[in-house]
Amino acid sequence: MDAYQPQLKRWLRLLAAKGVQELVLVNRPCPRVVPLPDTLFRIATLTRLYIGVWKFPGAAHLQGASFPNLRELGIFSVVVEDGDIDSVVARSPVLEILNIQGTIKGLRIVGQSLRCVQICASVVENIAVVHTPCLERLILWDVRGSPNHASGFCTRIKIGKAPKLRILGYLEPGKHVLEIGGTTIMAGIKPSASTMLTTVKVLSIKSCFGSNDTKMVPDLLKCFPNVEALHIISVKCNEPADKLDIKFWQEAGPIVCVLLRIKVMTIREFRGEQHELAFLQYFYENARVLKYALIAAANARVTGISDKQMFSILQNMNDARWASKFGLAIIGSNGPEGGRPWMFERGSNFSDDDPFAPAKFIEHGQYFFPS
Length: 371
Fold this sequence. Notes:
By secondary structure, the protein is an alpha/beta fold. The protein has helices at 5-17, 59-62, 84-90, 217-222, 246-251, 256-261, 274-286, 300-303, 307-315, 344-347; strands spanning 22-26, 48-52, 72-76, 97-110, 116-131, 137-144, 155-161, 167-171, 176-180, 183-184, 202-207, 229-234, 264-270, 292-297, 327-331, 360-361, 367-368. The chain has 2 domains: 1-81, no CATH class; 96-368, no CATH class. It has a 15-stranded mixed beta sheet that branches. The protein is elongated, with a radius of gyration of 22 Å. The two termini are 37 Å apart. This is FBD domain-containing protein.
């Protein structure tokens, strides 16, 4: 593609002259060392732009960049330097949706109009939400740190000014280090006003309930006192830790959102392991306002446990001490191990107020699956 730079620039100028609004530009075949022509960054009519398998031009070529009408930007497997993405976002005054996949050192999220940021299948050392007055959704899927970074494979997620942040996930204890208002959330930290995100109503966590990383889950939940919908993906645990039974959860202390706020709780990729059952028993015994719950078993071909056997395991839970009466749905799965990959379209659909929900609950305990 590098040999065709003059033709590509000419095509882009023709598209600009025709007032193109939506553009997907992917470099095939690789390598990604082919730089994006700076002509692209001067198409003022674009409202939706997706670019893949390129290299960002140098900072000097971005000086004249301007996307006055751009509302959605996707960047996939693009070689970027620190500040490249920030620079494009800063020159997109009405940008609402930012989707990223690939490897980047760090990302500073600053944007007056940003409503949804999604980062999937990416290696990122740190993500900093600096100043986003309109940000409603921060969605992370399969995000991990670089092995060359000081914190190992962990990604540091810093939440600064995001007064409208309502949907957050998938947080992964052990892979993600959460920092709120300058304070790093660690196991055993005492909750305070400065370590809470009170605007978040929908939260998703991805955790191996039998590992030591699970010890962070109670402290994470304490940071979100107003969560009304909690969605969990259970991860297979290869090296279970000891004593992560129901007593561990009881000794973690009161969790406000569990006691007083959560109305919907779902858990996916459930395997019927004792550590998972201990969490469910604790949760059901303490969730006083819970209305709907769903347990989605992992694919029987992966677990070796049939749907009938899984149902029998769950029926043995002691419901005599459950804190409320709620609708409970138990379903199977035919998806891949770990669940299906996240789809950007799902997170950026603003008409769906809970994109993490594997099923939508309606009156009388009925539910349906979103397409």
